[in-house]
């Protein structure tokens, strides 16, 4: 698969609009605006499902019922909670730094939403299949640390500030082994395009060639999304609610939405890099839909494992979190780079 296969949808839709007499520049803008709106709807639906899935999974593993009253099987409980939180009063502390306090949730949500721009949900379902999609994903993923630190500083609350500082230290530290773990995949695929990486796995999934890289990226993904056992920035037992302690109403909802959207994005990238992306059996009926179905099934299985860990593991101390990344994951990630070089040499020998 070529690196630009995901441009098919863009070319088809823009070509259709230009055929109707719409100027090229306007057709490009309309495509991007429409794609952005569809992305927002997709994120909202995914987050509603993930919240319900987390509550049911935690309830089962901790011998609790979970949502079971509002709607069939409690399906409407998440919708009711969303309506409740959106109708709550938006309170800004008197001593807060108002511009920073108000802007922080939007920075976090924007950086998370941009991750979906390069996710290859299907061969032609990629909003922007750029040649450096992997770099694009890592760059915008790191921006969440800025928003969380802005929330901690702008709140003028000691618990929020400690949570923000923990987030910056954790995300910056775990990005080092995360990026190193991506080098092996990029070398084997020969491209940084997310669509191209999935295409390179049509014969063998990279988890079989890069099991160590998969493990490192998965652990770093837990840390990037503040999932247990790396949920130090929130730390309810220590910091009340961490960086979002002073938030309420719509601004708190943006943090909550970004947290679950980020979990799905990281799981989707794991599917893209190591689990073959959209590759899977295609049945005769609705053949165009099966790639998307396989991508979603694999991604939700990764999310399930994340929530399994969240439901059962204890929180690490901050010194343990830092020791794990610098003393364990970074050396292993460097080792994985050398292993990847050896694998490339073997592939060239066999192919040559």
Q: Total number of helical segments? A: 14
Cα Rg: 21 Å
Uncertain segments are: 1-6
The proportion of strand residues reads under 5%
Give the helix/strand class: mainly alpha
Please indicate the count of domains.
1
Shape: globular
Would you report the number of β strands?
Answer: 0
Q: Estimate the mean pLDDT confidence.
A: 86
The multimeric state of the shown protein is: single chain
Name the helicity range. Answer: 55-70%
Strand and helix order:
HHHHHHHHHHHHHH
Reported for the largest beta sheet, the result is: none
Terminus-to-terminus distance = 21 Å
Q: Explain this structure to me?
A:
The chain has 352 residues and is mainly α. It has one domain. 69% of the residues lie in helices and 0% in strands. It has 14 helices and no strands. The protein has helices at residues 7-19, 24-61, 77-86, 98-115, 133-142, 144-154, 158-189, 194-199, 206-209, 211-224, 236-239, 249-274, 290-312, 318-351. α4 (98-115) packs antiparallel against α5 and α7 (158-189) packs antiparallel against α10 (211-224). It starts with 6 loop residues before the first helix and ends with a helix.
